[in-house]
Every structure is written in C-alpha cells, then in structure tokens.
Please model this.
Amino acid sequence: MKEFSIFSIWFINLLLLLESSSYAGDSSVVNPCCYYPCQNSGVCVRFGTDQYQCDCTRTGFHGVNCTVPEFWTRLRLMLKPSPSTVHYLLTHFRLLWDLVNNSFLRDTIMRLVLTVRSDLIPSPPTYNSKYGYLNWEAYYNISYLTRLLPPVPEDCPLPMGAKGKPVLPDPKVMCERFLKRKTFRPDPQGTNLMFAFMAQHFTHQFFKTDHAVEGGFTKALGHGVDAGNIYGDNLERQLQLRLLKDGKLKYQMVNGEVYLPTVSEVPVHMVYPEHIPPEKRLATGQEVFGLLPGLTMYATIWLREHNRVCDILKAEHPTWDDEQLFQTTRLIIIGEIINIIIEEYVQHLSGYHLSLKFDPALLFSERFQYSNRIALEFGHLYHWHPLMPDSFLIDGDEIPYSQFLYNTSILLHYGVEKLVDAFSRQPAGQIGGGHNFHAAVLKVAEMVIRESRATRVRPFNEYRKKFNLKPYTSFYEFTDDKEMARDLEELYGDIDALEFYPGVILEKTGPDRIFGESMVEMGAPFSLKGLLGNPICSPHYWKPSTFGGETGFNIIKTSTLKKLVCLNTKWCPYVDFHVPRNEEEAKPRKQSTEL
Ligand code: HEM
Ligand SMILES: *[C@@H]1O[C@H](CO)[C@@H](O)[C@H](O)[C@H]1NC(C)=O
Ligand SMILES: *[C@@H]1O[C@H](CO)[C@@H](O)[C@H](O)[C@H]1NC(C)=O
Ligand SMILES: *[C@@H]1O[C@H](CO)[C@@H](O)[C@H](O)[C@H]1NC(C)=O
Ligand SMILES: *[C@@H]1O[C@H](CO)[C@@H](O)[C@H](O)[C@H]1NC(C)=O
Model:
C-alpha cells in the first residue's frame, strides 16, 4: 500500500512535469478559451495567461461573453421560428405548399432558404486545422480544408476542452457498441441505392482528403462542384482522359455500347487491388471509383452525357475547336449536376413540400460571395455509410460485398440499364439513429472518429450553438434510446464533451426521417453554399453565351436524373432516388423506350 502511494506520487509528479513542459507559461493556469466562453459566434482571444476577451463584433450581442442581445437581436429572436418549427412547416401542410409551388411565393421562399442557410458559412473562409485564428496563410493555401470552428486549443486540460473524461472512448468500442448494424433498417424516407451512389459519386469530387499528410489537407483544389470526378483533379489527368477530338472523352465500346476506357488505353492512376489486370481496370476522373460498380455506373453515364452534349454543341458551332467544345461542355455538365442535385437529390433528402428551385438569379439581388472552400466538418458529417445494404440485388442475383467491391465485370455484364433499375428499386439504410453500419464499412466510421481527434474537432454542442440550435442538456435528450444514452454518458461523462461525428450520426431521428435535426441544419448550409457559390451561378456567367447559346443553357435548366440516364441508354429503366411508390412503378421494365 505504502509502496503504491509513493509510486503514485512519483508518477503524478512525472505527469505534471511532462504536462508543464508542454505549456508556454504557468502550468496551473488553464487557457480560458478551453471553456468556450464566447457565445453567439463571439471570438475568444487569450490575453496574458489567464485572461480572455470575446470579440462580439457584428454578432448582435454584447457583454463579456457576447450573451446580451442588442435591441434588434431581441426582436429578431422573438419573431424568428426555431429550426424545428420551420422544418415542421416545410414538411407538413401539403395543400398549402401546392399553392406556393405554383406562385411567386416559391421564389421568395427559395431565396429565403438559400440566404438563411448560406449566411451561416463564412466567406471568404476562416480557420483550418493548423490555424485557430485568422491569417493570410490559412486564407491563401487552398490545400487546407477550412474549418467552421477552430480546433480545440492544444493546451486544454481535457481532450474536448474543459469538460468530460480525461480519455476519450476507444473508437473501436464506439463502433461496436453504437454503430454496427444488427439487422438492416431501411430508410423510412424511401431512399434507394441510386441515391446512395449519387451521394458518393457527387461528393467525392470535393471530398478527397489527403491521407499522405496529417492534418486536414485535400487533393480536390476546386473546393466545390468542378466535375473533377469526371475530368480529374489536375490538367495532366484531364488530358489523358480526353479524346482531344470534338471535345470528347475517351471511351471503349463493349457490346455496341459506350463505357469508361480501361487503364491500358488511358494510363492514369486508379486504385485497384493488385490482382486486377490493367485491361479490367476502368479509368475515370476520380482515382477511387473502381471500388464500386455503382460509381463506375455513374461515371459511365456522365461520360456518355458529356460526349452527347459535345455532339449537340458541335452541330451548332462547327467552327469551334476541340478545346472550346470540351470546356463549354464541362460547364454545361457542371450546371446539370447542380440542377439535379438541388431539384431532385436535395429535394428528396429534405422531404420538403416546397418544390426546390435551381435558379441562380434568385441571389442576384442579395449579398452573396461566389466562392467556396470545403470544410473538414462537412466531410465528416457526410460519412453516410449506413446507406449501404447487406448485399446487392441485381436482375435476380444477390451479390455479396466480396463479389461486388472492385468487380468491374458487374457493370459490363449487366449494363447501365439493369444497374440503374436495380439500384433504384433497392432500399438504402437509414443514416441516423445508430446500429446501421454494415460490417464492410464499419472501419470507415472508426477512421473518421480517429481523424476528428487528430484534427481536434470541437464538441457537438459547440456546433449546435454555431448553427443556432439549442445545445443538448443531457444524453437522454439527445437520444430516445435509453441504453445508448446511458452508455454514452458513461463513456463521455458530459454531454458537452460528446464528439461531433457521433453527435450527428447517433442523434435521435425525427419520426420517419433519414437522420436527425443536426445533420440537416449543419449539412444544408455547407451544401447550398457549395452549390450556389459555383462561378457558373454568378451574374457574369449565368447566361446563354457561357454555355454556347440557348441550347446549352436549356440543357442545364431542364436536366433531370431520368433524362440523364435515358438519353444515354438503349431502354429506359425505373430511375429515381426513391424506391417504387406504387404498383405501377414497381412493375418490371424492359426494353421500353418511352421517356
Ligand atoms: C461499400 C461502400 C463504401 C465503402 C467500402 C467505402 C469506403 C470508404 C473508405 C475506405 C474511405 C476512406 C476512409 C479514410 O481513409 O478515412 C471512405 C471515405 C468516405 N466515404 Fe465511403 N465508402 C462506401 C460508401 C460511401 C457512401 C455511399 C458514401 C455517401 C456519401 C460515402 C462517403 C464517404 C465520405 C464523405 C468519405 C470521406 C472522403 C474524403 O474525405 O476523402 N462512402 N469511404
Ligand atoms: C463568462 O463565461 C465564463 C466561462 O464560461 C463564466 O465563468 C463567466 O461567469 C461568464 N461571465 C459572464 C459575465 O457571464
Ligand atoms: C500549404 O501548406 C503546406 C503545409 O504547410 C505546405 O506543405 C504547402 O506547400 C502549402 N502549399 C502552398 C501552395 O503554399
Ligand atoms: C409541390 O412540390 C412538392 C415537391 O416537389 C411536390 O411533392 C408537390 O406535389 C408539389 N405540388 C404541386 C401542386 O406541384
Ligand atoms: C464479378 O461479378 C461477376 C458477375 O456478377 C461474377 O460472375 C464474378 O464471380 C465476380 N468476380 C469476383 C472476383 O467476385
């Protein structure tokens, strides 16, 4: 006993010594910013060793901690409905929205949605993983992902700041206990695999974390919808992928149809397991898309669409060279992507009865910056791996992961039509609520938790506040699952120490919703800012001449998922982001060509 206490005193001294050596000053003083004292987006600046000041400029609040509302703020807060009220309004009262859809109110409300959401994203961007304060390097070096909130200061007493346990829960334990799927839980909003693969294909043009270097760097320097997933993230790769004739992309013909070329013809780096020979490695803009037939399927569809649009442009502009046809088509493709994402993908995800509209002109009368920087937090919250099913059902075959991943024969064997049909009919998993990660993707959740610690992402409740949501006061308010609440409390000790990713993924979902309130309120601002912040949406770009004339401009404005598929296939399969809603849609389709 005595020996033990001598040992422990020695040990504590050693710890103190180690700890104090990492401090700039006196080890007994805690950095006051570790308490996150500044509310309402006030900025905490440390003065001396134990002093701080909150900069409340333009927050609408004042006082030591930016907690005292100014007169107009008080009024605004009184009148402003809560996010949950707004969400309730938008997802109920069908008849009312039917009226709105067809009146000038649709524009008014859409403009409001866009401005309210994107106002939450600072532009130009602010912090990154290295810099918790504004500076030129953080602004200028676009290899960094930006950050909405600065990192947890390095010298805090606890991993999440000043609250919670001294050691964060083991990521493996987190995954096993809260994330691993027991039985497949389909998304109650009816999301299918066509949506899931679109989510992955679309987001991986701007989420390309550079794992070779530590600390929140990206390889996607376009920081938004640049179609780098189709054309590559650098000029060298783009030139390899291009046919350099008529603006087109290289392709191969299989059974009389256009597919992605292989690495033997287009020697670009693609990630594949060693045993796959070059003549089986499909090549596209994004290096990792060989992983899933769902991704090479979308890549094939976009390749066909690109070449289709090239033909249309060339017919109207026979004098244009390869370069101009390519570049103009790329802008049209970017426009199509944004239109389909807003009017169909986000529409589906939101469950809103308001019919969403892609019309950049809505923002021409508003204060809005046409630029975007991808945020680390956006990349983390978009880890939607619970969408993935237990196995893949195609044309009567059930394909396990072992035969699906990196199997490029699947696309060529079934063809685009049958894959679209299959993926549109198969339900995807519910993203929120926990216990829905298939074993094949559980490791990814573990990796994002580890990465968020390495990059010192602030607590979930700090993000709740940043997005005008009330911080949760207990784990039992955070989730209705009593067992989960109890276990989380035991592991984290304090709701204010709960981490960001576990927060957005485990939060209680609304009734029949794909995920919880935080995923919507935090994801939507990043998403809409990224979509509308694109240069093609700015006043000097958004006009017919940019896209080769009215024809190209109209291709963007009238694009739909169905046209994207069916203008590029021999027959028109069932194609939607929602599983079939009725018997008519559920009927098998074959070789019918109607659009
Ligand atoms: C079977 C299907 C899938 C597999 C095997 C898979 C696997 C992976 C792997 C290995 C990583 C890299 C993790 C790391 O190194 O930190 C990753 C990253 C990611 N995945 Fe998936 N994934 C799948 C489906 C999806 C889907 C459907 C989405 C939907 C949005 C998605 C979203 C992401 C995101 C946002 C990242 C981070 C990308 C980055 O920042 O570079 N994944 N995934
Ligand atoms: C400001 O916040 C700190 C830390 O949370 C707290 O100790 C202090 O009492 C607050 N001061 C005022 C005036 O609200
Ligand atoms: C960005 O910062 C990283 C890390 O300091 C550095 O290696 C890289 O060269 C910088 N990039 C540019 C373009 O300055
Ligand atoms: C209004 O838009 C929503 C979403 O697109 C749709 O569900 C609803 O049927 C529309 N109503 C009318 C009358 O267009
Ligand atoms: C790839 O998919 C094809 C077609 O479904 C199948 O016959 C083959 O066994 C799969 N290959 C591997 C290595 O699993």
